[in-house]
Amino acid sequence: MLEGRDFIIYTDQKPLVYAFMQNPDKCSPRQWRHLDFISQFSTDVRHINGTRNAVADALSRIEVNQISNSFLEFEALSKAQLEDNELQSFQNDEKSSLVFKRVPSPVSATELICDTSTGSPRPFVPQNFRRTIFEHFHNLAHPGVAASFQLIASRYV
Asked: This protein's superkingdom (predicted)?
């Protein structure tokens, strides 16, 4: 789709713009491989201020409030929440900082039990749904262990 077409790469990464102008001897082998790969498509790399780069921003960020219905069955999640002993123990624990409330699902006609203590509703995930959610987020960009944990914890309990 890109091959054989002329186009400009706009980036908010000034070092990338200058990397194409520098002597290849100053690059590490890894940097050289990355630049070589990019140059297969275009060497016309131009800087654009990050605040003006709304298109790339929209394409590169995970939408926080949008969850694809194809990877998670909300009706099944809601039913599993009602039967989950771990959730019941969290709800009965007066020392817990979690504040659970029923929140309407963004993509179905069901309600989910969510922690609202952070200001953003985070659905409680029963054990049998955790692997599905982990694999979904892990496959988005293959982040490391800490990044995967942080990504999931910011959206789910």
From this structure: Eukaryota
